[in-house]
Amino acid sequence: MRKLAALLLLASAVLAGGQNLLLDSSHAGPVNDLVYDPTSDLLFSAGQDGTVRIWEPEGRLRASLRVSHRPVQRLALHPSLPQFSALVGEASKIDTLAAWDWERGEELFSLTSDRQLMHLAYAPQGNYLAYSRADYRSLAAVDSRSGADLGLLRTGFGIVSFFAISRNGNTVMGYQPSGLITYWDLQADRSLRQLRTLADLSQIRITPSNRHLLAAAGERLVAVDLLSGALAAEEYVPGLARLALAPEGEELAADSADGLRRWHFTGSTLAGGGTGDPPGELPLTALAYGSGGLYAGDQDGTLSLLEGGGTRRILARNVILRVHGLAFRRELAAAATPEGIFVFRSPDLTGELTLSRLPPPFAGSFGLEFLDDQRLLAWRQEPGELAAVDLATGSSKPLAVEIGASLQQVSLEPRGLVLVERGGLCRILDPQSLETRFRYNAAAVNRLAATRGDFLVAAGAAGFGNSLFQINARTGETVPIRDPSLFVYDLLYSPSRTSLYSLAVESAQGGSRTVLAAHSGRQLESRRVLAFFAGEDLGASLAEDSSGTLYCSLGFGPLAVWDGSSLSRLENPGQVARRLAVHEGRLYAVNADSSISLWDKVWQAPWRMYLLLDGDWALLGPQGQAYASPGARSRILQVNTQ
Questions:
Q1: What is the DSSP track for 250-264?
Q2: How far, in Å, are 61, 166, 237, 558 from residue 227 at the CA level?
Q3: Considering just the CA atoms, what is the radius of gyration of the chain in Å?
Q4: How far apart are CA 524 and CA 91, in angstroms?
Q5: What is the DSSP-derived secondary structure letter of residue 136?
Q6: Banded model confidence at residue 639, pLDDT cuts 50, 70, 90
Q7: pLDDT cut 90: percent of the chain above it
Q8: Does the pLDDT value for residue 348 go beyond 80?
Q9: Domain ranges in the chain?
């Protein structure tokens, strides 16, 4: 096992006011867009992880802004102010435009659309922001600071998938997938000219002279004359994907099946573009030219500088280990990661932290529970499998439990080891002998919770009966619990409040919503919705402390806190909490980026813990405290927030 002793990172644990700490790491997932700002000489990256990150040309992280829990797909930068706008949503449902002041780290405004958003751009003077949506009245313009509608572009002319704004801001050139180019006078709200060109162009770039359009037409790289709509040049490029145009407009780069290729565009020809640089290990997902050359982002969040000749200089990568689960026993904690199991004593928030790393018992993701002081229980969902891990040696031994389907629930409860398989087989086993104490089979059950006396509550999908029902473990008798949910996916029973809490999806006007509900009464017949999220949030979880206070990560924002009579919120700045746990007076949250937030009675704001590649770690406090292993010290950055 590898031991890592804690080191005090800073001579003074508390930094000067107006400063914050940042871990130097890239996106947790694909980079969806890259945009270079020549005014500030900074590179902006948009990620599938919902963040926008700001980089110096050599790869030093300047800021990481949590724009949304959903993917950020596209960026536009204000020409003179420290502002950007982003299109947010899944690729097939980009429905939010968010504008931010990146220097202050504050959102300026947010707009939503019931139609797919397609493109956005600031006017060259910066006085308005334009965007297009999948509608006949496709184009709209808003004030760039407030988001107020400016009353322009009232007359529609069809769906616009790309547009560019003239230097004086008075004319918009819009491209429609049908192949129609329209020049539109904003003040007169009328068409000035229309041209026919190639249909279904993508990855459109406009040359600095505004004379030509460069784009992908399937697997053809094309140049279109914007005065006539005529094809000026073309070349067949197998697997043509991302395009980037150098600021001076002469060099063009594209990712392809042959790797990265580059051309010089003269206005009538595409010169060069021979054999490309060999493809990288992962597909490129974004390209942009900047002061250092050609920058690229890829599928796992890595940022690189492409220097030609097949050379890629890594500027930044995601160094945070994916944490699949946490387990606690007395003073010990264990975290499941792809690199193994990290066992450590619960952080005392004074810098003392010693880690032991054990080999992973399974490939891929797995969960953990402590069986006893010497062993961990590890499991993987698909295919369902259980193993005992020896804390002293790290060796793992499969448990002789027959599992016929994927595991929906594995938890150690006072009544024993609870197992729920896909298909509805529910069992409670003796954790030591593995003998069956309880067995029940009901289609679509995915969760089981022990309540009072001999009773259990099972949860599942309403399509196979009730979404909740009570089981007498002694007699096998079942009683439905009145509940309107489509399906329930998490349960927690509070003995101190004699209440059952559930997370469920139910029908709502215009779609569905996810609710946190409390069930009370002798038969749990009384239901009260404590909080809800408009839409589905199937990654939320529940935890309760010794006082009976309930914590819930529903809704991708601050945590919901229920004290039995009122609901409050607990902030988790810049993070999206997912899996929750309470141990020895502390609340832990595994966040969407796999950082771990922890709160205790002394510190109301969260500490942040990171487990990193190569076994390193960092622990950052809410007032600038910072502790780290030797290998992680250089990754702790001080950021001025004033």
A1: SEEEEEETTEEEEEE
A2: 42, 14, 25, 52
A3: 28
A4: 41
A5: S
A6: low
A7: 83
A8: no
A9: 24-243
The sign one gets for the Cα dihedral 92, 97, 103, 104 is negative
Residue 159 has pLDDT above 70, yes or no: yes
Counting Cα atoms < 13 Å in the Cβ hemisphere of 27 gives: 35
Q: What percent of the chain clears pLDDT 70, i.e. is strictly above it?
A: 94
* Interatomic CA distance for residues 591 and 580, integer angstroms: 9
pLDDT digits (tens, 9 = 90+) for 595-623: 999 998 777 789 999 999 988 999 999 88
Q: Among the CATH numbers 2.130.10.10, 3.90.960.10, 3.20.20.150, 3.20.20.70, which is that of 24-243?
A: 2.130.10.10
Own/partner pairs for 182-188, CB < 8 Å, 24+ apart? Answer: 182/157, 182/158, 184/139, 184/153, 184/157, 186/141, 186/152, 186/153
47 near 21, Cβ under 8 Å? no
- 401: CB partners within 8 A, 6+ apart: 386, 419, 429, 434
Q: Does pLDDT of 462 surpass 90? A: no
Coil, strand, or helix at residue 635?
helix
Location of structure tokens 């924002």: 557
CA distances from 44 to 222, 284, 294, 320 (A): 27, 16, 13, 20
According to the model, what pLDDT value does residue 12 have? 30
Quote the tokens at residue 466: 């009730």
If one counts every other C-beta atom within 10 angstroms of the C-beta of residue 185, the result is: 14
pTM given for the model:
0.91
